Amino acid sequence: MFFKRQPPLGEWLPELRQWFETDLGQQLLLSERDLLDRLLPTMFGYHLLQISVDNRLDLARESPVRHQIKVNPVTELGLPDSAVISRNEELPFAHNSVDVVVLHHALDFAQSPHQVLREAARVLRPGGFLLNVGFNPISWWGLYRKLKFNQESVPWQGHFISSQRMHDWLSLLELTVVKELSDYYCLPFEKQSWRQRARLIDAMTQRCSSSCGAFMLQVARKDIGGMTPVEPVSKKRKLINLPRVEPSTRGARGSVSEEKN
Predict the structure, then answer these.
(1) 81-118 burial, b if ≥16 CB within 10 A, otherwise e?
(2) Distance of CA 197 to the CA centre of its chain
(3) Which pLDDT tens digit goes with each residue over 4-53?
(4) DSSP tag of 42
(5) Following DSSP, what letter does each residue of 73-126 receive, concatenated?
(6) Chain centre to alpha carbon of residue 105
(7) What is the C-alpha separation between 76 and 82, in angstroms, rounded?
């Protein structure tokens, strides 16, 4: 799949954050948070990693995991103590060290989405969960992105990776998709009045297909089969059954008759 070359995330991070602060961005973010709030309480562990286009967001507020780390691509004022300055393509964490990884549009706005996903899979421990939130190309938002003339603006410059492509990538990284959800069926109009007029279209879209929301959320588990020890096969001796020799009575009869005489 060909991905359009994008600038580094740190260069257009202010524009991304500004869009998520708009009314349309806030409505989308509210729907995404609702799904995460339903899923994260069922995932336990010691360490949670959040990789988002805006790490000021608390996307794991309902998670029972206490130690939560947020990756930020640039140094900024006001970062929390749990923030780590790093590129998403090169995470400074050990292999199999994180229990839950949350990717929030991190693949949509990455120069190398597959490398970001590979790093997330690397640090995820066996049995851990990865939650990926990304724009859905098979939606009104995906159609609007195709028809929109100015595709250089946020969020339409994002990759909009398909569900099938995500399944293939996750499978190659030994991640099994256990659940896939989609939500927010409103048309991508900036004005709230236009979105309200299109409520009938939103309801019909949701009724016809529940997988045509503006975003997709894949829940994948890292399944790596352990090695089963092979027990040594004990070799038994193969015994050859020899014919048994029956004792002869010919000599015995002769000796008995001689004694009688």
Answers:
(1) eebeebbbbebebeeeebbbbbbbbbbbbbeebbebbe
(2) 36
(3) 777 788 888 889 999 999 999 999 999 999 999 999 999 999 999 999 98
(4) G
(5) SS--TT--TTEEE--TTS--S-TT-EEEEEEESTTTT-SSHHHHHHHHHHHEEE
(6) 13
(7) 13
Which residues, at least 6 apart from 98, have a Cβ–Cβ distance to it below 8 Å? 45, 47, 48, 49, 69, 123, 124, 125, 128
Strands 98-104 and 83-85: unpaired
Return d(Cα 165, Cα 170) in angstroms, integer.
9
Grouping H, G, I as helix, E, B as strand and the rest as coil, residue 195 is helix
Start-end of H helices in the chain:
13-20, 23-39, 113-123, 140-147, 163-172, 192-197, 199-208, 250-260
Q: CB 157: neighbour CB atoms within 10 A?
A: 19
Rounded Cα distance between 184 and 164, Å, is 20
How many other CB atoms are there within 10 angstroms of residue 18's CB atom? 13
pTM here is 0.81
Q: What is the CA radius of gyration of the chain?
A: 33
Contact call for residues 44 and 63 (beta carbons, < 8 A): no
pLDDT tens by residue, 91-119? 999 999 999 999 999 999 999 999 999 99
**Domains of the chain in sequence order:** 13-222 (3.40.50.150)
Task: Give yes or no for a contact between 114 and 106, defined as CB atoms under 8 angstroms apart.
Answer: no
Residue 145 neighbours by CB distance under 10 Å:
18
Taking the CA atoms of residue 21, residue 166, residue 170 and residue 157 in that order, the dihedral angle to the nearest 10 degrees is -40
